[in-house]
Amino acid sequence: MPIKGNAFVAIWHDIRAESEVEYNRWHTREHMPERLSIPGFMRGRRGVDWKRDRHRYWTLYEGPNLDVFGSPAYLERLNNPTPWSQQIQPAFYNFIRCGCEVLVSLGEGLGGAMATYRISFDSIGEDGFRRAARPVAEQILGLDGISSVHIGLARPESTGAKTRETALRGTTQDGLFDAAILVDGIGRLELEAALPQISAALARHQLRPAPDDVAVYDLAFALDSMNRG
Hints:
This protein has 6 helices and 9 strands. The chain has 229 residues and is an alpha+beta fold. The chain has one domain (7-224): Alpha-Beta Plaits (2-Layer Sandwich), CATH 3.30.70.100.
């Protein structure tokens, strides 16, 4: 399974232009290492699409189960942000976040870019989506340029705690979608070429995400767990 564990948190957001250089420095040097030092956090990834006007940044954290993302150790960090975090958090906006239960994760390794899909499955319901998850993943994985596919069922209750960090950041939206589909590709060029075929595979199962809910991010940074025990 290329996703480490059985759960992940997916985050999309923007950063105010005057803070972007400092954000990238903070997120790489302090924030993600801090998160990956929390027990249960297994891997983190950050992506960016400089061409996007909305949801330019994307982050993924992987863990063994959803409990990790509401654990006392995690909440302790969220309620005690570092001075650097207190400086950066107010620069966030358009912040969407949700913990997800992994339904299927196929393929190997990390790609150079990732396509993200926020999915609403009103037409087929949760049971229908669960049945469709593996066939969808298998169809997408068979496309040229695709290295792995991960499908998660949104569990907003796992990440909805109000903390000092959420207060610093302002509006945090945790329940805007029903599922997330993450598609690792060997690069942006290959992923963008595959987007029409991915859309067709989703449509065959009555899944038609809105254009604003589809994005391709170049991998900017990845880090494995800091826990060695």
